[in-house]
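Example 4.3 (complexes with small molecules)
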Amino acid sequence: MNSLVPTEKIWRNGAFIAWEDARIHVLSHVVSYASSVFEGIRCYETPNGPAIFRADRHMRRLIDSARIYRMEIGWTAAQLRDAARELVAANGLSSCYIRPIVLRGYGPLGVYGGDNPVEVFLACWKWDAYLGEDALAQGVDVCVSSWNRLAPNTLPALSKSSANYMSSQLIKMEAISNGYREGIALDVAGNVSEGSGENVFVVRDGRILTPPLGASALEGITRDAVMQLAADFGISVTETQIPREMLYIADEVFLAGTAAEISPVRSVDRIPVGSGARGPITEKLQREFFSIARGLRPDRHGWLTAVEVCESVL
Ligand SMILES: Cc1ncc(COP(=O)(O)O)c(C=O)c1O
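Answer. The structure with pyridoxal-5'-phosphate bound is encoded below.
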């Protein structure tokens, strides 16, 4: 369980405020109408201090998510990246999870929302392994959800909006209540889409497959990192429709996301994946991913944004 341990400061609309002051009114537009978009970013501890993983890509996606919903953020990706650096430094954390949130606030209360103020918050706190401490090495047991992912042209899957996470909650709650660690949802055509908070990868005969963005999946930033690392290793990755049953005959399956990082799947619907343990390609990608994120190997793709921590908070 990832408990929320308060830190000192939260960034709101360009200024730092105390954690406990980051409040909104219950009649803010977002509460009734789910009008918010957000990000989840990890900051890793490296030998040279904290480093935010792919900050620019996350901030770009935040702005894109808002744009789809006609929300004017008023900050550039570079400004938000710098704010995130300052936030981590101000809270004196060596590693953490960063949560930017853009929401429609207090004002007229009707569906439209265009006259409500757009507020931007950045918070951070300590976070552990999302799918459990054992997940990264042992793998997780997952099910195929009875809930389909969002249909195209209903709620936009490329926008990381809070509304999409009502679907994710159904998938996750069903999985947990049936004794699984995570659920994989199919798209409305019945092909593999994504986990409640992760993209899905399948390995078969040494090749990697992952669903295309048209399968109602989020354009994951870890997904992109996995694809780049696989290319570095000369491992083929194909974005293609994946029928459900491919999950049962794959040599390896793994989940990729900021929270779950790269987590092997050891069974799907109680059918062991391959040998039922982490597979060699998953392990290779996982090792490389963590080595770069934790600053143990050169940052050859330019993924890390260093945080300058004052001596006084070390
Ligand atoms: C539904 C969903 N799919 C995929 C992902 C993976 O995206 P990322 O790697 O950018 O965190 C996430 C996590 O943000 C997610 O919530």
